[in-house]
Amino acid sequence: MNIFEDAKKILDTHHLTITKEDRTRPWGGFYVIDESQAAEFAKIFFPEERLDTLNLSGRLSPKILLVAPQKRLSWQYHHRRAEIWKCIQGQLAVIRSSTDEESEKRILSTNETIKLQQGERHRLIGLDDWGMIAEIWQHTDASCPSDEDDIIRLQDDFGR
User: How far apart are CA 91 and CA 71, in angstroms?
Assistant: First the structure.
């Protein structure tokens, strides 16, 4: 099983356009979806959410995250975005906190959703198998949207 190919098939089935792909992250990789398809992405992966409540500033950025077994993304937060995640395949762990101190892990299973507020500390952790997350970056300032430079890493297993 190749989770990257599985994710690509899911995106192709829904006619979602991949604008960026990275299979080389030390924790796995991701697909970035064309922002013009954010509403369609939300309808597919977050049908229980109203688009007007997802859209904080007029701009949303959809992604698919693929997390390798036993790998941890950095303990991080963002100044210019909130995020919503839905586990669409597998099972992952999430740690979140309003302070720099990591709290207990919570298991996120297939079809479960989690909402992260702007500035909330968080970490995604792979468990025994690959996990797939549908993610929407909810930009809090459309005139200065969040990007990779908006990742404030408090701890990182990969020295970034």
Answer: 13
Closest CA to 94 of 111, 79, 116: 116
Q: Is residue 99 part of a domain?
A: yes
User: How many Å apart are CA 132 and CA 89, to the nearest integer?
Assistant: 5
Place of tokens 């109203």: 50
**Pairing mode, strands 91-97 and 121-126:** antiparallel
The boundaries of the domain holding residue 53 are: 3-137
pLDDT in tens, 42-90: 999 999 998 888 887 788 999 999 999 999 999 999 999 999 999 999 9
Overall domain count for the chain:
1
Residue 43's CATH number: 2.60.120.10
Reduce the DSSP state of residue 8 to 3 states and report it: helix
